[in-house]
Write a structure and sequence with these properties.
The chain is an alpha/beta fold. The chain is 39% helix and 25% strand. It is built from eleven helices and ten strands.
Length: 264
C-alpha cells in the first residue's frame, strides 16, 4: 500500500490495444510513484506512450494488466476522480465548444463538481480566475473560442484550472502549440497555480528542456517503458540512456547552451 505522501503509484502497468495483427503493447510494465506537491515531467518522443500514461492518470483508460492507484485506491469512477484531478490539453480549441461563449463554458465547468458553489460564487471565482491569467472579465464579454488566438485560448484553459482549484493537474503538451513568449507566460501561470493551490503537477512533453526547467523529477519514456528517471540535474547533466542523450541533442539551442553551462 502506498505511503500517505504518494499521489499516484503504478505497479507493472501494461496497456494493450487491438488483437492479432493489430495487437500493440503501448505500455510495458511501468512502475513509478508521484508524490504529493511535486512536479513530475514524463518526457519522450512521439508514440513512446507518454500520452497514454496521462489518460490513465486522468481515469480515461484502465490498464490491461497491472495496477494504478490514486491516493492508495484504484480509479474506478471518472467523475469521483475529477473532483480533485483535472487536465490541460495540447489543443485548447478542442477543449471548448465553438458554439457557446467562453464565459458560459468556464461557469459550466463547475458542473463536474458534486458540491457546486452558488451562482454568485461561481461568477466571483471565474472573474478571479480570468484576472489571474491577466484577462479582464469585461474584455471577454460574450466572446466565442474562434474569436481568440491560440495563446489566449491556452489562458482560458488555465483560467478554468484557477477557478476549479484541483489538487492535481495533468498537463499534456500544454505549451506545444504556442510560441516561446507565450510558452514562458503559460509556465509562469502554472507555477503561480502550484504555489497558490499547492498542486501536484504532471507534465507530459517531448521537450526535455522544458522538463529540466520546471521539474522536481523527470521520467524519460521510450517504446512504452521508462528508460531513465531522476532529478533534472541527474537526467540532463548525467544522462545514462541513449534515448535521453538524443532528446538532449534535439532541444533548442537556448536550452542546450544553458544545460552545457551547468555541465561545465
Amino acid at each position: 500500500m502506498p505511503n500517505k505522501n504518494v499521489i499516484f503509484e503504478a505497479k507493472d502497468l501494461v496497456k494493450e490495444f487491438g488483437h492479432g495483427k493489430t495487437h500493440n503493447v503501448v505500455l510495458k510494465g511501468l512502475n513509478f510513484e508521484i508524490e504529493d506537491g511535486e512536479i513530475v515531467t514524463i518526457v519522450g518522443g512521439s508514440a513512446c506512450g507518454k500520452s497514454v500514461v496521462a489518460k490513465h492518470l486522468l481515469g480515461f483508460m484502465q490498464p490491461t494488466k497491472g495496477e494504478l492507484f490514486y491516493k492508495g485506491k484504484k480509479i474506478t469512477n471518472q467523475r469521483d476522480h475529477w473532483q480533485t484531478v483535472q487536465p490541460i490539453f495540447q489543443d485548447p480549441f478542442s477543449a471548448f465548444n465553438q458554439f457557446f461563449s467562453i464565459r458560459s463554458q468556464l461557469e459550466d465547468s463547475f458542473k463536474v463538481l458534486y458540491k457546486r458553489p452558488s451562482r454568485a460564487e461561481i461568477k466571483e471565482r471565474v472573474d478571479a480566475a480570468l484576472l489571474a491569467v491577466n484577462v479582464m472579465p469585461s474584455d471577454l464579454k460574450e466572446k466565442f473560442p474562434f474569436e481568440l488566438s491560440g495563446g489566449q485560448m491556452q489562458r482560458m484553459l488555465l483560467a478554468r484550472i484557477f477557478a476549479l482549484k484541483p489538487q492535481v493537474l495533468i498537463a499534456d503538451e500544454a505549451t506545444s502549440m504556442v510560441d516561446a513568449c507565450v510558452r514562458a507566460n503559460i509556465l509562469d501561470y502554472l507555477m503561480k497555480l502550484k504555489k497558490e493551490l499547492n498542486m501536484t503537477i504532471v507534465f507530459i512533453t517531448h521537450d526535455i528542456g522544458l522538463a529540466y526547467y520546471v521539474s522536481d523529477r523527470i521520467f524519460v519514456m521510450h517504446d512504452g517503458g521508462i528508460v531513465e528517471h531522476g532529478t533534472p540535474d541527474e537526467v540532463a547533466l548525467h544522462p545514462k540512456s541513449n534515448h535521453t542523450i538524443q532528446l538532449l541533442e534535439d532541444i533548442p539551442d537556448i536550452h542546450k547552451d544553458w544545460i552545457k553551462r551547468k555541465r561545465a
